[in-house]
Design goal:
The protein has 4 helices and 5 strands. The protein is α/β, with parallel strands linked by helices and 138 residues long. The chain has a single domain, classed as Beta-carbonic Anhydrase, Chain A (3-Layer(aba) Sandwich), CATH 3.40.1050.10. The structure holds zinc ion.
Length: 138
């Protein structure tokens, strides 16, 4: 990943992942180069119909971040065992394959919408496990 571009990072509010996300971005030499937008579910929160009221705020913030901070990239960081994914699944038992699908759908939606609204902006899609492993989805 190139470190010369400023980015907006979209991540979840889950307390277990705050330092993981921070350290991951630091390792990628992005310290001081990103704006952080944190909302329950990360990409799930800004794409799922269950959280429809939240979507506009996110896209408004992207617009402002492009104007004010000249961001060139959106880095989306979802995580495993996410409470927002559980809400979307609506099931008591939360299967890993169902969770993966919910993350994939959210990535697909955010990628498509970003391409429509801001075709020049790059996007990176990540899913972090509880053991801090980072999976790429693009
Ligand atoms: Zn979460």
């Amino acid at each position: 990943m190139s470190s010369k571009y400023k980015a907006m990072v979209l991540s979840c509010i889950d307390p277990r992942f705050q330092s993981i996300v921070y350290n991951y971005l630091k390792k990628k030499n992005l310290k001081g180069k990103y704006s952080l937008f944190t909302i329950a579910g990360s990409a799930i929160g800004v794409t799922s119909l269950k959280f429809k009221k939240w979507h506009k705020t996110f896209w408004d913030n992207i617009d402002i971040s492009i104007k004010l901070h000249k961001i060139k990239k959106l880095i989306v960081i979802n995580h495993r065992d996410c409470g927002a994914a559980k809400i979307v699944s609506g099931k008591k038992k939360f299967r890993r394959d169902i969770e993966t699908k919910i993350h994939k759908v959210s990535f697909k939606k955010i990628k498509k919408k970003l391409k429509n609204k801001h075709p020049k902006l790059k996007i990176e899609l990540k899913l972090i496990s509880l053991n801090k492993k980072v999976e790429r989805f693009n």
